[in-house]
Amino acid sequence: MRKDVYEYIVAKPKIHQFLREQPSWYRRLTRRPMDIKEMEKEARQYYKQTFPHKVEQVVQTIEMAKMMMAMMKLMKDTHN
User: Fold this and answer.
1) Which of 23, 60, 55, 54 has the alpha carbon at shortest distance from 39?
2) Residue 49 DSSP label
């Protein structure tokens, strides 16, 4: 792997971790260093850091809050 590519990866801890977990990227980046952006995109998919993943996390949090509110209301109604 070219030194500049490796230094770029090491400067970004998540990308570096992804490279350690997916070692096939070592070989790919050695052969095609210009694929670094594609690797970053795949790492974001892997760690669920894309916009759709973040929206999904917000929706799940809202659903959890709604469920807790309904449960609290039910508990309040049973005590009265």
Assistant:
1) 23
2) -
Q: Please say whether the beta carbons of 15 and 43 come within 8 A.
A: yes
Q: What is the pLDDT of residues 22-69, one digit of tens each?
A: 999 999 999 999 999 999 999 999 999 999 999 999 999 999 999 999
Locate 48 and state its tokens. Answer: 């669920």
What token pair was written down for 6?
């490796």
Cβ atoms of 19 and 25 closer than 8 Å: yes
- Which residues lie closer than 8 Å to 44 by C-beta, 6 or more apart? 50
* Short-list 43, 46, 33, CA closest to 3: 33
Report field, pTM of the whole predicted structure over 0.85: no
